[in-house]
Design a protein that fits this description.
The protein has about 160 residues and is of the alpha+beta class. About 20% of the residues lie in helices and about 30% in strands. It has three helices and six strands. It is globular, with a radius of gyration of 15 Å. The chain starts with a helix and ends with a strand.
Length: about 160
Amino acid sequence: MKKFLAFAIVVSVILIACVKGTTNTGTTTTCTNVDTTSEDPAIQTFCNKDSVTFKRDVSGVYYHITDTGTGVSATSASVINFTYTATLLNGTILGSGAAQQAISGLIEGFQLMDSYLKLNTHIEMVIPSSLAYGCTGAGTVVPSNSVVSYDVIITAIE
């Protein structure tokens, strides 16, 4: 039951992130994603707080791999099982647990890191807001234009 609940939460956050903001009249509101480079100073401060060395992917995602894992890397067509903790830069925990998801159904920043994901990979990703939930956020869970940190362990790849 816990796995189902965790899965339902992850799917809900993903689906909410895909919905465009609307007003009560049903008209679409506009919002603007923050430029990835403008978030770099805050991300670097977050990454340096525990004296851990993060690398910056060309996409703008910062990552630290504790365990490289084994086997073949995941692809955008892969379905992965993983445990995770998601937080905002201020330490607010957005969620944690175990989930199973097609990589193609995850937020863009997570998808861009697929080549680093192998069985038993332990990776922390700090994803700029435009590659996470963007200017719309994710309902009441993730505020708009929020950088999100994911601490992830890959437990299976299909």
